[in-house]
Amino acid sequence: xxxxxxxxxxxxxxxxxxxxxxxxxxxxxxxxxxxxxxxxxxxxxxxxxxxxxxxxxxxxxxxxxxxxxxxxxxxxxxxxxxxxxxxxxxxxxxxxxxxxxxxxxxxxxxxxxxxxxxxxxxxxxxxxxxxxxxxxxxxxxxxxxxxxxxxxxxxxxxxxxxxxxxxxxxxxxxxxxxxxxxxxxxxxxxxxxxxxxxxxxxxxxxxxxxxxxxxxxxxxxxxxxxxxxxxxxxxxxxxxxxxxxxxxxxxxxxxxxxxxxxxxxxxxxxxxxxxxxxxxxxxxxxxxxxxxxxxxxxxxxxxxxxxxxxxxxxxxxxxxxxxxxxxxxxxxxxxxxxxxxxxxxxxxxxxxxxxxxx
Length: 358
Prior knowledge:
GO molecular function, one term: DNA binding
Keywords: DNA recombination
Strand content: 5-15%
Protein name: Recombinase
InterPro entries: DNA_brk_join_enz, Integrase-like, Integrase-like_cat_sf
GO biological process, one term: DNA integration
């Protein structure tokens, strides 16, 4: 179901990239970005996201001295569970931890600014990760603030999580490649997606129940029985059919290198492995991407009208097929799909632009 069911891999990537893009354009706040990626990456319920606190964003080192990052999520819908009594650690990436940590610092600054006084470190740790600033305006003292620690009154309502997800879809114009319309989103769809992706990878009911923090396995079986086959053969024609809807290309086509932002800077030139120029990067600073493939889904990329995009496109299709043959796993090969669709979009835009110039 493209409206209520699990998201396709392309839809999930489109949402995550769209949220980051909206933040880079200052269309959303760091709090809204943290809500979006925290929900999409963990599959947790809105109430669980809304009840997070600064103290729940953790990092540490394992026995080998390697860093690990954890979000200590309050459990929800468990029998006899009270407010923030039971927790379930959820391993997160360094990137998500960095975003949540930035929001933790932001929340502390916002709360202390609203209160008009600095809090002790213990009190800072109990600040909601997503505080309700309107409620804070009525707090007059540290004592009153501590009294509210035992309640959920300082936390944003759970409904605001879903509102934020939908707001980001509108702000970043995130669309489904299945419908061509704005992505119909809520936290439940991310939860379905998390369970379905685990089932698709062959995990059983026990693992899925643990992943989704179910009290037992009675509901986990639904993910195994209803695995959608979203990832099929992506050939040359399909890539072009999906391109107008998926909106994987978010950069700006330019007629030539000299028309690009930073076009006079040789270090901004993006080349293929064969040394052919395909476009210009409009962003200053270091980028660790393995150019040029990731560039086609980046908002800073400016492909040239005369760039060898067809060659890159065909090479990527061949690479997808090669990976599938070597691994026997279409899921691994499908990692390239969004770049393939973005390339198809660029090729079609080039054809249209050439018609306009002729």
